[in-house]
Amino acid sequence: MTLIERVTVADGREIPDAATGEIIGRTARHTVADLERMYQAARRAQKGWAALSQERRDAYLLALADAIDAEAEQLAVLLSREQGKPLEGPNARFEIGACSAWLRATAATSVPSEVLVDEPGNRSELIYKPVGVVAAIGPWNWPLMIMIWQVAPSLKMGNSVVVKPSEYTPLSVQALVAVMNDVLPEDVLHVISGDREVGAAMASHPGFDKIMFTGSTATGKAIIKSSADNLTRLTLELGGNDAGIVLPGTDIATHADDLFWGAFLNTGQTCAALKRLYVHESQYEEVVDELAKRAAATPMGVGLDAGNVLGPLQNRRQFDIVKRLVDDARDRGARIAAGGSPAPELGPTFFQATIVADIEDGAPLVDEEQFGPALPVIKYTDVSDAIARANALDAALGASVWGDDPDAARQVALQLEAGTVWINAHGGIHPMVPFGGIKGSGYGLEFGVEGLKSVAVPMVITTA
């Protein structure tokens, strides 16, 4: 039986192919009652899972990675169809590979106890215990990789998990969970395919000990309000509108490819993508030209077709947002250096890779998160002004500085307001490097030791 046959149900909600609109499967219509059933089962299973030794749980994580690798191509094809990202390039196969790689890295990471005081009459030690049952609510842009970011540390630390995927991409997440549940003990990991009512019930449920959410700032704020009475621990990775600053004197030819992919990874549908680029007037036209060349030349199309590395917008709602923002920029007199229009010949939600020049702060394409294949390039004359403009928005997930003088680049990086600032790169992540936002981009850290601590509760043991 194929993975899609394992997770599709005869009377479920239809899920279309993001590129073509063809129906690829049907997802279950879970309810709040199903959520309660899954929560209770996860609660019962958690104690036994936590009672296993750390070495045993790590062995399970490694076995999960092996199981994902064994089904990698099936998972990648389903992901490509449901989400829209091509198989090739930094896309579907890349995402599946990241899932198993993250599991292995998590298994290899430890949270040692820490002796805080060791003196006569007081030996105090800090340890970390499982938080309990984790609710993991994921997005549609990187549905499998982000699910693993939530699930792997939770399982490592002895928690059970109930996963809720986006309504746009439930099948691929359900398929990944099915593969994982072939390995895990019963009821340690659940997946619920529900609507907003189910998501709201998770956020307000008094039993969940931790909520992990990746998605929009508006939804993150709603989760905070819904969970407040329960004092539920939260990790919120929310929307970004990442700024990049190209310093004067930068070798543009050296950095042009990385600049382009910093913005257009996953066809721009990445929280920590480069979404507004500030370029010094001395090199402005050179940067615009180099980016426009790459936008015009990068293959876009149906994800299963060989050679494509850019895909569609995952859903019509996001397509409409991108089109509105680009149309508004054009109406304001901005210059469309590349793209600028839908590509209906490729499919219903394809939008050309777009570079927009001669645009200023205050335009919606600059101030709002476009979450798609459209990059505004803004001219500046003074570096301090560019820093102030980069910091002006509430979104503060990531930022980047581009320049060939390491000291100058670092000095600018230290003045930027963001959870992560990259130098001569944008959006790169590592399983051992903590990641999270500030300001309107949320709070809490994922990855590495800090990520493991975030799905645990600290305890101090003091011996007199």
- Alpha-beta content class: alpha/beta
> What is the CATH fold-level name of the largest domain?
Aldehyde Dehydrogenase, Chain A, domain 1
Write the CATH architecture name of the largest domain.
3-Layer(aba) Sandwich
CATH class of the largest domain: Alpha Beta
Strand order of the largest sheet: 12-13-14-11-10-16-17
For the record, the count of structural domains works out to 2
> Span from first to last CA?
60 Å
Beta strand count:
20
What is the number of helical segments per DSSP (H or I, 4+ residues)? Answer: 16
Strand content: 15-25%
Biggest β-sheet description: 7 strands, mixed
Described by the principal axes of the CA atoms, the overall outline is globular
Using the CA coordinates, give the radius of gyration.
23 Å
How much helicity do the residues have? 40-55%
Structural key phrases:
6-stranded mixed beta sheet; 21% strand; 7-stranded mixed beta sheet; Aldehyde Dehydrogenase, Chain A, domain 2; Aldehyde Dehydrogenase, Chain A, domain 1; globular; 20 strands; single chain; 464 residues; 40% helix; alpha/beta; 2 domains
Structure overview:
The structure is a single chain. The chain is an alpha/beta fold. The protein folds into two domains: 259 residues, Aldehyde Dehydrogenase, Chain A, domain 1 (3-Layer(aba) Sandwich); 182 residues, Aldehyde Dehydrogenase, Chain A, domain 2 (3-Layer(aba) Sandwich). It has 16 helices and 20 strands. Strands 12-13-14-11-10-16-17 form a seven-stranded mixed sheet, sandwiched between helices. Strands 7-6-5-8-9-19 form a six-stranded mixed sheet, with helices on both faces. It has a three-stranded antiparallel sheet with strand order 3-4-20. Helix 4 runs antiparallel to helix 7 and helix 10 crosses helix 11. The chain is globular, with a radius of gyration of 23 Å. It starts with a helix and ends with a strand. 53% of the residues are buried.
